[in-house]
Design brief:
The complex is a heterodimer of chains A (415) and B (758). Chain A has 415 residues and is an alpha/beta fold. Chain A folds into three domains: 166 residues, FAD/NAD(P)-binding domain; 54 residues, no CATH class; 158 residues, FAD/NAD(P)-binding domain (3-Layer(bba) Sandwich). Chain A contains eight helices and 21 strands. In chain A, the strands form six sheets. Chain A has a seven-stranded mixed sheet with strand order 13-19-14-15-16-17-18. In chain A, helix 1 runs parallel beside helix 2 and helix 6 packs across helix 7. The longest helix of chain A has 20 residues. The radius of gyration of chain A is 22 Å and the shape is globular. The radius of gyration of chain B is 32 Å and the shape is elongated. The longest helix of chain B has 24 residues. In chain B, the strands form nine sheets. In chain B, strands 7-6-5-11-22 form a five-stranded parallel sheet, with helices on one face. In chain B, strands 13-20-14-15-16 form a five-stranded parallel sheet. In chain B, strands 2-1-3-4 form a four-stranded parallel sheet, sandwiched between helices. Chain B is 28% helix and 19% strand. In chain B, helix 16 packs parallel to helix 19. With 758 residues, chain B is α/β, with parallel strands linked by helices. Chain B has five domains: 132 residues, Rossmann fold, CATH 3.40.50; 195 residues, FAD/NAD(P)-binding domain; 154 residues, FAD/NAD(P)-binding domain (3-Layer(bba) Sandwich); 48 residues, Alpha-Beta Plaits, CATH 3.30.70; 159 residues, Rossmann fold. The chains are: A alpha/beta (415), B alpha/beta (758). The interface between A and B is large, with 82 and 92 residues.
Chain lengths: 415, 758
């Protein structure tokens, strides 16, 4: 007897899309998400290219669809431990890490006020800190706090527990495991920003005013650490000259042996953030090729018309910093061949996307290429979607989510 | 209608600290609608398990058919406050919209209390005018029509058949296979993405033609698609008319090579040995790569992907006025029926939009040159090597071939040499600032132009016309305006895939075909259950028309963003519920107010607004402003503003609406006649990059607003008292300033509504 239900691993845009598309034709769907919230990478973005619209707009619709559809069930802070069985009848073991906050939470924030210890914020890529009792971000779904008990000082968990007026903090919460029986699996574990520490010539993530493109998204976001102000991490000053270094890690056999698809469009989008918030700032983008496929060309043309933006085909060989913490770039212009040094107030590394699976052992046997992308699995009833499979933009991610849902359904109804 | 209500007032999350909850309970018990409120209670924490159990017990014991929960936003605790399909739930947002966002500097005492009372009355009124919709569930056709038998259409047909669906595949050519059938190879479709491969189209054709579920019609023209999703009647002419009952449509009619005259600036049409990639592919497929001038195999071939010479000054078709337009005859031939011209949407920009395929094709065809002769040289001259994503590996593989010379170059001209060869002049190259490159043959890009840039293709028998509206926004592609929802267009039940949607690779088209098939199946299944598709997926409500009072003004049929309404000869609208997305734009359009939803209607919202207590004396009691807020974006923005501790004028009252398109002018008129001092419509951005989930709602609202303001003017009320503001879901920090602006620029400036007190 085959099982009609579908497991979706990853609650980012690909996973949510796949889950909803399948649920809306009647399939029972389980989303397993490792973060405390759904929405994945797009939840961390300020705006989408090329429309410059907020990701929360589409996520709100997706969350409404989830709320209104009893066929969709989701688990946050959850991971797949093991998969046994065969296509059409899988047994999946899920582990849920303790959140220490139960369904009574009203998001009143008393626990956060009572907490005293702070650690670096994962959601904001360490640009700021968060308390040990926290909500990841304003738009978090589900709306429920998290207590990071492991990071609590002695006695702090008790203080936090006592501060909650609704008995929502449960200091005795423990890791739980349970089993799900499903017919198909959609693998949508997404991507992570390439680790800046590996880019040793570009400062290895140690230079004060060199940030990654994802950090820049957080700086520009109204729910980010600066409430949307673009400022230098070292001194909080508004930068007057900003450089973008494209292909930071991408198109490089020593790092990521592919193009990360989104970074050129993302940097052009970042120019629009700068222009809105810092009308006088000078911007230079150093690139190998500006990859703006399809009708994105219109966006590229529009941004390129900015007279305070220079587009330079050139390779950034090195970044150092001066005493005032301003980054100094060593650049070779590819067309003129001229090599020189340029000082900026702030530099954004267009770091590439690396599949989240890269370098990790998966709980299910899936063919993976040398970079960590899933390159098969259909025979086994596992269908990859989104950036677990290929470097993609959001639109194409949604497309692969929908098509993976169809494949997952075919796998259970065809039996 | 909900007739026996339970009203529950929460004391948690600061509500009990800021409000006198007991007094609110008393107030509700004595209110106008107290008669239908069988239970009125308070609870210290309404979302606690005990409180929920109490509500459940009350529903059972008192036979409640609706509960009004005065607590937090409906966006919070959604999973807890659910009491089964027979119990309607109304959430009164006292937390975010009342207590958390209350401006503590307010001078007049008791304002918070008044506000809470208004919202409670409004909530009770709203629920009392709401009933549970019981949609018709039509017996739907399950078959899927696939338009186009190219690579995308073949894949779509097979995917649908694998889902157990009957498929009708319509191809206008005599053979299946489309453009892919003319390709020697395609660029890599799978790991390791380094080698061109067979398209596999022959195998697909064999699979399709031998599949019993798929009826293939070649040399066939689609005559018409009539009806609505789940209930289409499709007429096809394939040497005789055939009629099919169809559930939904996948549009995979693909593309045509762009008008090559746009390539004239690079010598096409002038020099014999300048060809397009489409022509070069045909030569390669025929196994004969030769120079057209002398039939000899070229020793060097230059592939140019920089099209800046051709696209200079070209604008996207949404702006373009210079596209080559076929001149229309001065007069239509007599006796012929009037044919509505389909605006041609092709422009030079399609060359730019095809950049990814242009680069990949150049790499692939450079490979053909190398395979045809090991001595032959291939040049690829690019502005940007447009191989985003994994295809970088294919580019790398080409770089490893010493016979392929790749360089960045901006082409400045192509001229003919004495020997029939060509001289390409270029600047800003990696070979030097200004160079000339000689080649025996020059190959220029072929633009991917969707067939819908020239014809409607879908031949829908819809009042709003046979094709997709406003395709100039997408340069003729049947694309979605939504990044998050790539299959959402303005015609429910028709899902585009492949190059008719965007220029795309075969690998991507295969994926796209699968996605579009699922959307088609989902649409049929939703139609069958009587529920809406995206974005109100699963919504049971549907517009009901009271035809007795309809004056056939046609506003609803014209304004529906999805073309849901047809009409008869007299102009009476014919609803097609399965085309409808339930935005309520028709309801907002109707001057006679004959359109309603069971759980959302003109009377209901109008009555809610009338529940707002308006003090007769504005100086003593303060003004009152109604804010009609889009529930998809503005409303969540308000919630988040409150979460961030923002506050605003205590004189506004928020009324959530499905979409600003559903706002009926009477709500504004009623509010003003009641003495309300101003009305704000808070909705999504409109224009070319619109964010409205119902496409046209906020734009239509702004257009109707002008009419509303004029009518107010005739009554002696300042037009400025009605204003629409655009607010994105993430513009929560801007909300207080927007409201403040209205309060000072409008209310302070104009003073009390002249109707006040009447």
């Amino acid at each position: 007897m085959s099982n009609n239900s579908i497991l979706v691993v990853g609650g980012g845009f690909a996973g949510i899309t796949a889950a909803l598309e399948a649920a809306e034709v009647g399939h029972e769907v389980y989303i397993v998400e490792t973060n405390p919230y759904l929405g994945g990478r797009v939840a961390q973005l300020n705006q989408y290219f090329p429309k410059l619209c907020p990701p929360s707009c589409g996520l709100e619709i997706q969350f409404q669809r989830i709320k209104n559809n009893p066929k969709v069930k989701f688990f946050t802070m959850a991971d797949v431990v093991s998969v046994t069985g065969a296509p059409g009848a899988y047994d999946v073991k899920i582990k849920v890490r303790p959140r220490y906050v139960n369904a009574n939470c009203t998001m009143c924030g008393e626990c956060e006020k009572a907490a005293t210890t702070s650690v670096a914020s994962e959601f904001d890529f360490a640009l700021t800190s968060r308390k040990v009792a926290y909500s990841t971000h304003l738009f978090a779904f589900p709306q429920r706090f998290v207590v990071d008990a492991a990071a609590c000082a002695p006695g702090e968990l008790d203080t936090i527990t006592a501060a909650c007026p609704y008995d929502a903090v449960d200091p005795n919460d423990t890791e739980k495991t349970f089993d799900l029986s499903v017919g198909s699996i959609v693998w949508a574990t997404g991507w992570k920003p390439y680790d800046m520490a590996k880019l040793t010539n570009l400062g290895a993530g140690k230079l004060a005013n060199v940030v990654s493109n994802m950090q820049f998204e957080r700086l520009a976001a109204p729910n980010g650490p600066t409430s949307g102000k673009i400022e230098r991490p070292s001194d909080g000053k508004a930068p007057k000259r900003i450089a973008f270094v494209q292909c930071a890690g991408s198109r490089d056999e020593n790092h990521l042996n592919y193009c990360s698809y989104i970074c050129c469009m993302a940097s052009l989008k970042h120019v629009t953030y700068i222009r809105e918030k810092l009308p006088e700032a000078q911007v230079v983008i150093y690139y190998i090729d500006l990859r703006t496929p399809g009708r994105y060309d219109n966006f590229m043309q529009k941004v390129a018309a900015d007279d305070k933006l220079s587009l330079v085909k050139g390779k950034v060989a090195k970044i150092t910093e001066c005493e005032c913490k301003s980054p100094i770039l060593t650049v070779e212009d590819a067309v003129t061949g001229i090599k020189g040094e340029e000082r900026f107030d702030m530099v954004v590394l267009a770091t590439g996307m690396q599949p989240s699976c890269a370098g990790s052992k998966l709980p299910v046997e899936l063919p993976m290429d040398e970079d960590g992308f899933i390159i098969g699995g259909a025979e086994a009833g596992v269908f990859a979607a989104g950036c677990a499979k290929l470097p993609l933009d959001v639109m194409k991610t949604a497309q692969t989510g929908t098509s993976a849902a169809l494949k997952a359904i075919q796998n259970v109804v065809g039996r | 209608m909900a007739e026996k209500l339970g009203v529950y007032i929460c004391g948690g999350c600061d509500l009990g600290k800021s409000l006198d909850v007991d007094a609110l309970v008393d107030f509700t018990k004595k209110s106008k609608l107290a008669g239908i409120c069988a239970v009125v209670k308070k609870n210290a924490v309404l979302c606690s398990p005990d409180a929920v159990a109490e509500i459940e017990a009350d529903i059972k014991e008192s036979g409640l058919d609706g509960v009004v929960l005065c607590a937090c936003s409906p966006r919070a605790k959604w999973d807890i406050f659910r009491f089964g399909a027979a119990t309607q739930v109304e959430r009164v947002n006292l937390r975010e919209q009342c207590v958390w966002s209350f401006d503590k500097d307010a001078k007049i005492p008791g304002l918070l209390d008044l506000m809470a009372k208004d919202y409670i009355k409004m909530g009770i009124m709203k629920l009392s005018k709401s009933r549970i919709p019981t949609p018709e569930t039509p017996e739907t056709n399950q078959a899927i029509l696939v338009l186009g038998g190219g690579f995308t259409g073949l894949n779509a047909a097979l995917e649908a058949a694998r889902m157990g669906r009957d498929v009708v595949l319509v191809e206008k050519a005599a053979e299946l296979g489309g453009k892919a059938a003319g390709m020697l190879k395609t660029f890599p479709m799978s790991h390791p993405y380094t080698k061109a491969e067979d398209t596999g189209v022959a195998g697909l054709i064999a699979e399709v033609t031998s599949n019993a579920k798929i009826k293939v019609l070649t040399s066939a023209e689609l005559t018409s698609i009539e009806g609505a999703p789940g209930l289409y009647t499709v007429t096809v002419n394939a040497g005789g008319e055939q009629v099919f009952e169809i559930g939904a449509v996948d549009l995979a009619t693909g593309w045509a090579p762009g008008d090559a005259s746009y390539l004239a600036p690079m010598g096409y049409g002038k020099y014999k040995n300048v060809v397009t990639t489409a022509e070069f592919e045909a030569m390669a497929k025929a196994g004969k790569i030769v120079r057209p001038s002398d039939g000899k195999a070229p020793a060097s071939v230059a592939f140019i992907t920089d099209v800046s010479l051709c696209t200079k000054g070209a604008e996207p078709s949404s702006l373009d006025v210079c596209a080559p337009v076929e001149p229309l005859p001065d007069k239509a031939p007599e006796g012929e029926p009037e044919v509505v011209a389909y605006p041609p949407l092709e422009s030079a920009k399609h060359l730019a939009y095809s950049s990814e395929l242009t680069s990949l094709v150049a790499l692939k065809q450079a490979g053909y040159v190398r395979e045809s002769c090991s001595e032959a040289l291939a040049f690829v001259l690019y502005d940007h090597m447009m191989v985003p994503g994994i295809n970088e590996r294919y580019y790398k593989a080409a770089q490893d071939d010493a016979g392929i010379m790749l360089s960045k170059a901006t082409i400045t001209g192509v001229t003919e040499d004495v020997d029939g060869g060509l001289i390409i002049a270029a600047k800003d190259t990696l070979l030097g600032a200004d160079v000339e490159i000689k080649a025996d043959l020059v190959v220029l890009p072929t633009a991917i132009v969707p067939v819908t840039a020239h014809q409607a293709t879908t031949n829908l028998v819809y009042r709003q016309g046979p094709g997709f509206p406003d395709l100039e926004l997408f340069d003729g592609f049947v694309d979605s305006n939504y990044i998050c929802f790539p299959y959402e267009t303005r015609r429910t039940g028709v899902y585009a895939a492949g190059c008719v949607r965007q220029p795309m690779t075969l690998a991507n088209a295969k994926e796209d075909a699968a996605g579009a098939v699922l959307k088609a199946i989902q649409c049929i299944s939703s139609a069958n259950r009587g529920v809406a598709v995206h974005p109100r997926s699963g919504d049971l409500s549907y517009p009901v028309f009271n035809f007795q009072r309809c004056t056939q003004c046609k506003r609803c049929t014209e304004e529906c963003p999805f073309g849901a309404l047809d009409d008869d000869e007299k102009g009476t609208p014919k609803p097609n519920p399965t085309r409808c997305r339930r935005c309520g734009t028709c309801m907002g359009a109707c001057p006679e107010r004959v359109i309603s939803f069971d759980n959302y209607n003109v009377d209901q919202i109008g009555s809610m607004i009338k529940e707002v207590t308006v003090p007769d004396d504005m100086v003593a009691g303060g003004p009152r402003v109604i804010v009609l807020a889009c529930e998809n974006d503005a409303y969540p923005a308000l919630d988040m503003a409150a979460f961030r501790g923002k506050s605003w004028s205590p004189f506004v009252r928020f009324v959530p609406v499905r979409c600003l398109g559903s706002v009926n002018a009477i709500w504004v008129a009623d509010a003003v006649s009641k003495g309300v001092d101003g009305v704000i419509m808070l909705g999504c951005k409109y224009g070319a990059d619109y964010q409205c989930h119902f496409v046209k709602g906020s734009e239509l609202c702004s257009r109707r607003k002008t009419n509303i303001a004029e009518s107010l003017g005739r009554l002696g009320v300042e037009a400025e008292r009605v204003e629409q503001y655009e607010v994105s879901i993430d513009e929560y920090d801007k909300v207080p300033a927007l409201i403040e602006r209205f309060m000072t620029e409008v209310i302070t400036k104009f003073g009390p509504n002249p109707f006040k007190g009447y």
